[in-house]
Design brief:
Blueprint (H helix, E strand, L loop, with lengths): L1 H22 L8 H25 L1 H5 L3 H6 L3 H11 L12 H6 L6 H15 L1 H4 L1 E3 L4 E2 L15 H12 L12 H12 L17 H11 L11 E5 L6 H10 L4 E7 L2 H13 L9 E3 L9 E2 L2 E2 L2 E6 L8 H7 L26 H10 L1 E12 L8 H12 L3 E6 L12 E7 L6 E5 L5 E5 L2 E5 L2 H12 L8 E4 L1 H6 L21 H38 L1
Parallel strand pairs: 1-5, 3-4, 3-8, 4-5, 8-9, 10-12
Antiparallel strand pairs: 1-2, 6-7, 9-11, 10-11, 12-15, 13-14
Helix pairs in contact: 1-2, 1-9, 1-10, 2-5, 7-9, 10-13, 11-12, 11-17
């Protein structure tokens, strides 16, 4: 009940911030998400600092006003307090606290004070919270929020409205909550800003069902708590849904996250997600940049390899400007199956997922595991790059299996998708699951979406992990069997064809045969009549 109350209060805070933006002309504006996410993060970091400080110092916990009590500390005492907090807590000074700004909100040029405070926090914590670009630049934690208000005369009032709203509520009592709480909050926080309805590199939110299935198969329950000091990578990370689920299954303190994504927006959202989910130590590994053209993470000159890889890459995109650079001598090993050609009439339909998939295979450690969302057409293509990739996975014996998902599992695309599981340690028994008939169809705005129930998710996970063959649902096949089927990974092609045997009396058999004969006669007569009608029409046309 307490958790539900705090979840409701947190959502109300987000709604209130959005309402303030709307009142100042920023509702549905392209910059609204920057303000909402940065103000939310400022509030979160402020309250987490207070929570941690009070845990360390009973005197602060008992003080009537903890902000004043910290302000009274000497420089050395404050430094020691911050040292005891650990590396994942923002280093804040007394003048950074929300209470300090609240007390000075009637000062002239309050918007400048507000912005200067956020910028000073960002600069003071650059080593912890900055996201790097592939060119080496650093994207700091906060922008100058008030400058998104075009009317200079309204900026002070805008910042006063924000500081009053975030001072009404405290996160302090929710820092003991689990991953699911923060995942729900994060999804609510970004729900209006993370769709694929607009730009070339727009992000979209991976459904939780897909993320949970991936994580539970990559890290089965019996392995949870036993995996240590591993690396997890997503070369097209978006806002990080897949990585958060895998990190939670492994244990946030048992793994390090590595990402790259071309979008600054998604990298900022991912940073927020890591902060919410106690993965601050991985923020230096978030890179904003072009993974395919300029892969950043390396061990020396060689590309870094990872223990776990998850990805929901874009399926089609115009990368014609980069195509020749990708199809170069130095990339031959990484793109072992080839680089897609530019379609003659639709450059935007270049199959970019084929490159991401090859990059993932190349980036996997010996014995490593990966899970990748692919268009279902990939698993049966009879030739080309798709088949070459499948053949490589089969011939090298590094395939765990495939789960073919229901249509419309993503509300924003009608493309049927499958989850490809790669496991370099799996040398026999590949699991193929046809889950296309599962789920319940619902309306999601103008789109139709398919939702999997918890029981259906668990059925997929349990069947895969047990390597269980279930009639019309799953098969377990050997690598030789797959090679014999032209490397097809469609479960349906391996299901047994069942013939139903029925005992009939001679009279029943004769009756059935007459039925078949009568039906064939009828079809032949209809066919002959149609043929005659077509001939007459053609004759008439010739005479006309």
């Amino acid at each position: 009940m307490v958790t539900q109350d705090f979840q409701k209060s947190t959502r109300q805070l987000i709604d209130n911030l959005k309402s303030i933006c709307a009142q100042y002309g920023l509702g549905n504006d392209g910059n609204e998400f920057k303000i909402i996410t940065q103000v939310f993060l400022y509030k979160f970091l402020n309250d987490k600092f207070a929570y941690q400080a009070k845990k360390i110092s009973p005197e602060l916990a008992e003080a009537e006003n903890w902000e004043q009590a910290i302000s009274a500390l000497s420089g050395d005492e404050l430094e020691m307090l911050q040292y005891q907090m650990g590396a994942n807590i923002a280093r804040l000074k007394p003048e950074h606290f929300i209470a300090h700004l609240w007390n000075r909100q009637n000062a002239p040029e309050f918007a400048k004070l507000f912005d200067d405070t956020l910028r000073d926090i960002a600069v003071s914590n650059n080593d912890i919270f900055a996201v790097k670009t592939d060119g080496g630049a650093k994207v700091t934690l906060f922008d100058r929020v008030s400058e998104y208000i075009s009317d200079v005369g309204r900026r002070d009032d805008f910042c006063r409205a924000i500081i009053n709203k975030i001072g009404d509520f405290s996160f302090e009592r929710i820092f003991t909550q689990k991953f699911d709480f923060y995942a729900t909050i994060f999804e609510y926080l970004i729900k209006d800003y993370n769709s694929n309805s607009g730009g070339k590199y727009a992000e979209y939110y991976t459904p939780h069902a897909v993320a949970r299935i991936m994580a539970a198969i990559l890290v089965p329950q019996e392995q949870q708590g036993k995996v240590h000091n591993v690396s997890c990578y997503d070369p097209s990370a978006g806002s990080g849904t897949l990585l958060m689920n895998v990190a939670h299954a492994i244990g946030e303190n048992r793994c390090s996250i590595y990402t790259q994504d071309i979008s600054q927006k998604s990298s900022n959202l991912l940073r927020l997600n890591l902060i919410l989910n106690n993965l601050v130590h991985s923020i230096p590994n978030i890179i904003q940049g072009n993974t395919l053209l300029l892969p950043y993470h390396r061990d020396g000159k060689a590309l870094k390899r990872f223990d776990y890889i998850v990805s929901n890459p874009p399926f089609k995109m115009d990368f014609s400007d980069d195509r020749n650079a990708l199809d170069s001598k130095e990339n031959k090993e990484r793109f072992f199956a080839g680089v897609p050609k530019v379609p003659a009439k639709a450059k935007e339909k270049m199959a970019i997922y084929q490159l991401f998939l090859q990059h993932i295979v190349h980036s996997l450690k010996p014995g490593g595991k990966a899970a990748v969302v692919v268009p279902t057409g990939f698993i049966t293509a009879q030739s080309g790059i798709d088949k070459k990739i499948r053949q490589h996975l089969v011939d090298e014996k590094m395939l765990a299996g495939v789960v073919s998902m229901p249509s419309n599992i993503f509300a924003t695309t009608g493309t049927n998708v499958s989850i490809l599981f790669i496991d370099d340690s799996n040398k026999n028994g590949v699991v193929l699951i046809d889950a296309s008939n599962l789920g319940t169809k619902v309306k999601d705005g103008k789109n139709q979406k398919t939702l999997l129930s918890e029981e259906e998710e668990n059925r997929i996970i349990a069947t895969f992990n047990a390597k269980e063959a279930v009639e019309d649902f799953s098969v377990v096949v050997g690598y030789d069997d797959i090679a014999a089927k032209n490397y097809s990974l469609s479960a349906g092609q391996y299901f047994e064809v069942r013939i139903e045997y029925v005992d009939l009396t001679p009279e029943e058999f004769a009756t059935k045969m007459r039925g078949f004969t009568d039906n064939l006669d009828r079809l032949f007569k209809e066919s002959a009549g149609l043929e005659q009608e077509i001939r007459q029409q053609l004759t008439g046309l010739r005479y006309e």
